[in-house]
Amino acid sequence: MYKNIIFDFDGTIADSKKSSSIATKKAFSEFGLHIPSDTQIEYYMGIPIEKSFDLMSEKSLSENELNQLMELFRRYYKETETLYLNIFDGMTEQLAELHEKYKLFVVSSKKTDVLKRNLKKLKVEHFFLEVIGSDKVENYKPSPDGIIYILNKYNLHRNQTIYIGDAVFDIKMANNANLDSCAVTWGSHGVEELKRENPTFIITNVHQLDFEE
């Protein structure tokens, strides 16, 4: 029986597609790069922009260019999140229920300060014992660094812990950590893509987020 749940953020707890899409397109346009499609942006939302922007750019970016592009994105994202960042229907209530029975954490591809700001905006930050962003790990998803950090710091048992995410990168990360996983279908990646990564569970609505036997 699980005692600990580690969540992804984007596409799992919150719908940030529109904010990310607008900010990415504005940043790429201002930087003179080919503007990626919504499909591209959505697919790569599961990994940090330090990796995804290089993958979406039609040319190789220097470290300085990538830093400038990321700075533009973060500025535009902060402007748009107020309007377009929303928690999924029923998630607040579900987190409140889970908080009574499990230790809850977040491991995300966002930077930690942005992650905390977003959770606070959505009024759910108090449900989580700790949140880990991409700046807290040496290796990004699908590396298991974030999960392993949580397991070690809080002395959690793998067989009592599950990771929940919406992208193939999330399930790969859980597999790399030798951890059970739950794929959710309301985020970035479709059911067939998620199935190929062999998650322990696949769920289709927020109210299925309970793992009591």
Task: List the topology elements.
Elements (H helix, E strand, L loop, with lengths): L3 E4 L6 E2 L1 H14 L7 H6 L5 H8 L6 H22 L1 E2 L3 H9 L3 E5 L4 H10 L8 E3 L12 H9 L7 E5 L2 H9 L3 E5 L6 H5 L5 E3 L10
Parallel strand pairs: 1-4, 1-6, 4-5, 6-7, 7-8
Antiparallel strand pairs: 2-3
Helix pairs in contact: 1-4, 3-4
Protein name: HAD family hydrolase
Organism: Staphylococcus warneri
GO molecular function: phosphoglycolate phosphatase activity
The CATH superfamily name of the largest domain is HAD superfamily/HAD-like
SSE topology string? EEHHHHEHEHEHEHEHE
When the domains are counted, the total is: 2
Q: Class of the largest domain in CATH?
A: Alpha Beta
- Uncertain runs are none
Q: How confident is the prediction overall: mean pLDDT?
A: 95
Helix content: 40-55%
Number of strands: 8
Question: Could you say what the CATH architecture of the largest domain is?
Answer: 3-Layer(aba) Sandwich
Kindly report how far apart the N and C termini lie.
7 Å
Question: What is the subunit organization of this protein?
Answer: single chain
| Main β sheet profile | 6 strands, parallel
Strand content: 5-15%
The tally of helices reads: 9
Derived structural class: alpha/beta
**CATH fold label of the largest domain:** Rossmann fold
For the largest sheet, list the strands in their spatial order: 5-4-1-6-7-8
Backbone CA Rg: 17 Å
Shape: globular
Pfam family, one: HAD_2
Keywords: Hydrolase
GO biological process, one term: DNA repair
GO molecular function: phosphoglycolate phosphatase activity
